[in-house]
Design goal:
577 residues; Immunoglobulin-like; nine-stranded mixed sheet; five-stranded mixed sheet; 39 strands; 9% helix; globular
Length: 577
């Protein structure tokens, strides 16, 4: 029997690992080309750069195949040999440690191929501990305590937060939650059933948030890596309410599969999964506090994929809510092909071709509109994947919304040329399938099937390596981005000719997979909110951002022409504050 809750967790882990704490090293092109199989090596270290011995390293194929688990040696080194030539996700586990969050500006890819060497950095997990007691000082024994992250280590709000480890208090009423990512949290005791198979003597109680209140009065607790924070809770012993109903629809009649139902509390526009159950058609949540909630049912089938109900927004206020009916419908499916175009330029002959299994294709939703339509966890169900040996791919489990497509080759001398829908399909569907799928959002509907998406890579990519140098007597800002924008007027609307790279502390930078042509090159100090710029600069609706950076490049008058398969090195780029 498939376990929908576990399947959803696996989908979420794919997204977590894709943004894991990995720093890609330059691949050995010749070594990767020599054989269809190869080796990935690496090292696991702590925040001080010291090796972590006996760490468990998981090397998993991006599409779920070709996995390997190895342990680090006394120097923190690991090696996995005889791996097929596909894209890999790498994660490490060490008791008491958590992955350092990946900086997408320093490592925009987030995955590996054979021949790569990975440096994985772990940091000591944070801890929240405290005691749960009643107003008379008596300890509350065996009550479940949950910590929800509200802001990440950069202070950015977390839209959807599942609870961290959920320990119960001991005979003193003391709890301890360890292995927490750095960030800001709220902590609650009790608050409903998290599993239809758990026995919780406090399941009917409304949650008590530290120090002793409801969600809107909860204290925010800062957790730093390797440090311990305290959050005592005075338990209120207040009964909660019941939310119940029935789910039906696609796949709901198969008792061997069952489905999952989640009741997600909402506060200040954020979602926090508090109540969930699986495997039952008639559902009931107890211990629900007053507030606004989103209720959604989901079901997974290996043949069909995910089916999701429309989100029901409900308001609990002073009483139970019963008789809710939700109907499940399959999510959308999108298929396409990756095409490789060779080059006849002499300088590009004999270069390594991309391997389809190393190309990761992902459909990413429009975050500016998604929060209005769907609970955030739904967007993690349709994770990225790799094409088959013929270049064909099928993106499944896509919720209704607007999407763009993200992909890049790992072969050095190839670049992304276009992402497009067939012209005939574009005319028929108009808004849903724009001919230029890189420059425009693609809108999809629940249950629909789309085909014909073509992703074209071309040989002839150039690269540029250099250093940002401040004017005489000046200094380099802490975070400086180097931008490449098209200097040819007819290329200005080509969104795939805009590039961004964060310079290192010493001013060095590198940009690769660049289509041949003329470009403006300029450096800008990062403004507040300037993160993940390579992705942001290519968002379909960031026209003003691209225009501003293009104009900055024109004003700087630093223009360069990149020939097919050229590696431009020792480029000097002036920086003006």
């Amino acid at each position: 029997m498939n376990h929908p809750g576990k399947m959803r967790l696996c989908a979420a882990l794919v997204m977590l690992l894709f943004g894991g704490p990995i720093v890609c090293a330059q691949s050995d092109e010749k070594a990767a080309e020599a054989s269809a199989k190869g080796t990935i090596t690496g090292r696991v270290v702590n925040e001080s750069g010291q090796p972590l011995a006996n760490a468990v390293v998981n090397i998993r194929g991006y599409s779920g195949s070709g996995g390997r688990t190895v342990n680090t040696d006394a120097e923190g080194n690991f090696q996995a040999a005889d791996l097929p030539s596909i894209a890999y996700l790498i994660s490490a586990f060490m008791p008491g440690y958590v992955p350092r969050p990946r900086d997408p500006d320093l490592n925009p890819i987030g995955y590996y191929r054979i021949g790569d060497s990975a440096r994985i950095e772990m940091v000591k997990g944070g801890v929240i501990t405290g005691a749960v007691k009643r107003s008379n000082g008596d300890p509350v024994v065996l009550v479940t305590v949950r910590a929800f992250m509200t802001r990440d280590f950069k202070g950015q709000p977390v839209r959807y937060a599942t609870p961290s480890r959920t320990p119960t208090t001991d005979d003193r009423g003391v709890y301890r939650i360890y292995g927490l990512q750095p960030g800001t949290y709220v902590v609650s005791a009790s608050g409903g059933t998290v599993s239809s198979y758990s026995l919780d003597p406090f399941a009917g109680d409304a949650p008590t948030y530290a120090p002793s209140g409801t969600r809107d009065t909860a204290a925010e607790i800062t957790v730093n890596a390797g440090e311990e924070a305290t959050a005592d809770i005075r338990y209120r012993d207040e009964p909660g309410h019941v939310v119940s109903g029935t789910a039906a629809g696609a796949l709901a009649d198969d008792p061997q599969r069952g489905f999952s139902i989640a009741l997600n509390s909402r506060f200040n526009g954020m979602e926090q999964a508090v109540y969930s159950t699986w495997g039952v058609r008639n559902f009931m949540f107890s211990g629900v506090a007053d507030g606004d909630y989103d209720l959604v049912a989901e079901n997974y089938s290996p043949d069909v994929g995910w089916a999701i109900s429309e989100t029901r927004r409900i308001k609990v206020s002073g009483g139970d809510i019963t008789g809710i009916a939700v109907t499940l419908k399959p999510l959308a499916v999108m298929s396409g092909t990756v095409v490789l175009e060779d080059s006849k330029v002499a300088e590009c002959q004999g270069k390594r071709r991309p391997v389809f299994g190393e190309i990761v294709v992902g459909a990413y939703h429009n975050e500016k509109t998604a929060a209005k339509d769907q609970p955030q966890f739904i967007w993690s169900l349709g994770g990225p994947l790799t094409p088959d040996k013929q270049g064909n791919f099928t993106l499944r489990n896509l919720a209704a919304g607007q999407y763009r497509f993200v992909t890049r080759p790992l072969a050095k001398y190839w670049y992304l040329k276009s992402i497009s829908w067939p012209v005939t399909a574009a005319k028929a569907a108009q808004v849903n399938q724009p001919a230029d799928a890189a420059r425009n959002w693609t809108t999809i509907k629940t249950g629909d099937k789309y085909s014909g998406l073509t992703i074209t890579f071309a040989a002839g990519a150039a690269s540029i390596h250099g250093r940002v140098e401040p004017e005489q007597g000046g200094r380099l800002s802490p975070r400086v981005f180097v931008y490449l924008t098209p200097a040819e007027p007819e290329k200005r609307e080509d969104i795939l000719r805009y590039f961004a790279s964060l310079a290192a502390e010493d001013g060095t930078f590198e940009l690769g997979s660049i289509p041949p042509g003329r470009y403006w090159v300029n450096a800008r100090a990062a403004a507040e909110g300037d993160t993940n710029m390579q992705s942001k600069i290519r968002l379909p609706d960031e026209t003003e951002l691209r225009t501003r950076i293009l104009h900055d490049g024109e004003a700087g008058k630093n223009q360069t022409e990149l020939k097919p398969c050229q590696n431009l090195t020792e480029y000097r780029l002036p920086f003006r504050e």
